[in-house]
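[INFO] parsing input record for Rhodanese-like domain-containing protein
[DEBUG] input buffer:
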Amino acid sequence: MKEITFNNFYQLYQKESLSVLDVREVEEFEALHLEGVRNFPLSQLADAYEQLDKTQPYYVICKSGIRSARACQFLTEQGYEVVNVQGGMDALE
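[DEBUG] output buffer:
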């Protein structure tokens, strides 16, 4: 699985237009999220992943990096190109 540290991800995020999926639950996402990020809760990912575009890479983030790693594993198995953001939103605080 491809991974990137939060700091390296955040530097890219500030410079480029990235496709980012936040797999935290809706309440967590609404409390704090990065601008322009799409919320795809891990609990609903198996039902919603087909809405994603297989031709573009996605950076996947959660609170600490554990749920995003699970989401990356699942999405990779479905044929998506994904990068796990290590440390997740906890690294922002």
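[INFO] The mean pLDDT is 96.
[INFO] shutting down worker
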